[in-house]
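Suppose a colleague, Dr. K., hands you the sequence of a protein chain of 236 amino acids and asks what its three-dimensional shape might be. Before reaching for any lab equipment, you can write down a predicted structure in token form. Begin with the sequence itself:
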Amino acid sequence: MNRALLIKELPNSERPRERLMEKGPDALKNSELIAILLRTGFKGVSAIQVAEHILQKTGSLDNLSRATVAELQQIKGVGRDKAIALQSAFTLARRMAQEIQREAPTLDTPERIADLLREQNRQYTVENFQIILLNTRRKLIHLEKISQGTLDTLLVHPREVFKPAIIANAAAVVLAHNHPSGDPTPSEADIKVTRDLIRAGQLLKIEVLDHVILGRATQERARDYVSLRELGYFYS
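The predicted structure, expressed as tokens, is then:
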């Protein structure tokens, strides 16, 4: 039985650490970055080959990031330690996103809203409705999770949305939720809820700036989110 191949035993062209040092991390393919985390392959199969197999089995980094240790261990060549290393890396990425969130960024575009929410929302398998509370300078006060629905149904009441905004003395809010299907196109229910909340906000003097729906990017769809304001569903 062949022992696992160490990365340092591979030809220079297949050593991702050396390539990272020479060209920088952005020059590496996803499989090479994953191979660095794996360190070794198994039974004569290199770490890069195992990484490519992992990506083939999971289909995307998004799916890989949501896989549990038990699910990862079902992939050939991924033992307990490798599964833990992979899950640790994606957990660190999510925590980094949370740190950025706590630095009170200015959230004045749909792109910035999506950047704030992307890592957290990619983990959800059902719809989660959230509101982003902002001050008068459009700086983040707090992110509040309002409700969780089934795969395609989400119930939202204006009272639940605006209560935390009033408590936080927010000047404005941005509505946001995810579509687990990956398609961020708004449904009729999404549009109705948005318009109801806009009217409620007007009565309370709390502006609803936008409603951002997060999905996943594809070859046909470059952005992984949509803005209902950009789509024309907000009243002027």
